[in-house]
Design brief:
Elements lengths: L1 H9 L8 H13 L4 H13 L4 H22 L2
Helix pairs in contact: 2-3, 2-4
Length: about 80
């Protein structure tokens, strides 16, 4: 059990409500294609979660290396 908790804490950036929006944003940027639908989805997701664009940008700035590694895995 302690091992599971340690693994969760090591990757706690994934628990944050900004994780999925940040991952989608970075994977879209890696593809190099602007996506208006994705931008709208991100905006509505942030709004529904009571988060601002600044919250998302701050989260990305804090966890960018980890998020970039994850985003590279999901580029489709």
């Amino acid at each position: 059990m302690a091992d599971k908790i340690d693994r969760i804490l090591q990757n706690k950036f994934r628990i944050d409500p900004c994780y999925i929006p940040a991952l989608l944003k970075l994977s879209s940027e890696l593809k190099g294609e602007p996506d208006e639908k994705l931008d709208e989805l991100l905006e509505s997701t942030l709004s529904e979660s009571n988060l601002s664009q600044e919250d998302l940008e701050s989260y990305i700035k804090m966890h960018k290396p980890e998020l970039m590694e994850e985003a590279k895995k999901i580029i489709f």
